[in-house]
Specification:
The complex is a heterodimer of chains A (179) and B (173).
Chain A (H helix, E strand, L loop, with lengths): L2 H14 L7 H12 L5 H13 L4 H44 L3 H28 L4 H17 L3 H22 L1
Chain B lengths: L1 H15 L8 H10 L5 H13 L4 H44 L3 H29 L3 H16 L4 H15 L3
Classes of the chains: A mainly alpha (179), B mainly alpha (173).
Amino acid sequence: MSLLKLFLIFCKIGAILLGGGYVILPIMTSEFVDKRNLVSHDDIIDYFALAQSLPGIIAANMSMFIGYKLRGKWGAIIAMLGVTFVPFWCIVLLASVISTLINNPYIQGALWGVGVSVIALILLTVREMWQKSKKEMFFYTIFIMTLLTLLILKLSPIQTILLYTLIGVGYKKLREGKA
Amino acid sequence: MIFVHLFWEFFKIGMFSFGGGYATIPFLYHISQVYNWYSLEELTQMVAVASITPGPVGINVATYAGLKSAGIPGSALATVAEMIPSLFLVIIVSKLLRKFSDNFYVRSLIDTLKPISCGLLTAVAIGLLKAEINDIKAMILLAFLLLISWKSKKDPLFYILIAAIVGIFCKFL
């Protein structure tokens, strides 16, 4: 894979990345696993988990992980520049005409539809993560506790990640000691 | 001098914001009060524009804020500055992964992060379902999109385009 080709793929990913970073997982899976078979599905899930636990923007982190995996340091830099290329020019152009556009009913309609499709994509991603996960008690327990912590205790994502990383790794360490 | 400040402020956002694009908003609020780059009103408009244009929201907001502060060069600088901390971290973590992928702690960390990230994503989905799917039109569209995806997976762009067309069409009804 040449750096130019990598840049173009990430340009496309940046251009279709709508509704925040959460659709990055289905898009990455489609581009790098289903279409080109350059990265394994397990790697993509690992990167997604890591990208969320690092500071910064999830979609950009994920792009850089894949860029690095494919072409090392320069791959990561090219991925970073590629994924922001189209959005960058969209913002620059849109900033000048925004006030007139937002009042157009058809634009509003299209944005409403896009909002719904983003939810569908997120649900599909959750389903896929379930299908590909190891079907064991450890996964279910951490999953349920994470969800309850976020919904009921309303801890922030970073607090939740830190809490359950400690609990999960600690539990595995205890288990290892016994085995 | 503005470029030095701009770089430093957005570098800090990239270093200390966790958990997705909207996590950067408190930092941008702080910036609007310390510097005279944009007003609070402009900040809300920036977030709206960042949400509807393609690309990660957190990056788009940085692009827009940079644009407001110092034109297109400021825009490019803020965008890159926000991603530089991640760039280094990603490279370091990737190297460690290659070296230590058999290491007990690295393996259990990844095994633990998987159910956590699945939980985070599910919580986002539940929040969005509550906030956005509140009329019969939205429910039908969502059900329809899930139905066509159940049997065969397609390019995400396919669902986004169909939904946008349906959204425009609804305005004619």
